[in-house]
What does this fold into?
Amino acid sequence: MVSKPVFKDLIPTDSQQFDAFFEIYSQSIEKSEQKPKDKIQAICHRKDYLIRLLYSESSVAGFTLSYVNASKRFALLEYMAVHQSKRSHGFGSELLKDLTTSLFEKQIEWLVLEVDSPYQNSKDKDSRVRRVNFYKKNSCREVESFDYILPLPQAPADLGMKLMLYDLRGRDSDSVSTVKLREMVQEMYVVVYGCEAEDARLEKMFSNLPKSLNLKK
It folds into this structure.
């Protein structure tokens, strides 16, 4: 029987805690999506990032790593992973629940998630569908009629991406304003990915869109 999880903030100066977290990160996250260890270490010291650790049986068993923009009241879930020996115990849902609770306490209104499109024909289509269904089961909604461009140099040119949103205000919104979505995506491009504020991909994504976009359950 697996013990009930305990959640803690990562302490940047705790090297043992960081090593346990980074081991899961390096083994669980797709290599092409990983950041170098020194950049992750730097992120740990930033006030606009939140790293929550899940403890099971006194050891780090999972984590969430999120960029948090307090002024614009949104967060981006960059990474979430569970140690391979602790999977299939519901810890993924527990991690997401802990994160949304923590963000609500910080008065954040929207949690943004980047997901590979479940509609694109690909070798990993089944896993894409499972991932999206997992998030939907946990109250996240897909932004309809919006094709997201992941601004990573190593991302395949034909990679289909979608955005999902979690409404932390408890309103279970059916839509998001296009202005608000652009505001969040632009901040992600600039702060998280180091792009220019007038990146041409932003105009490509947001041209000819209605005033609001539906959120699909």
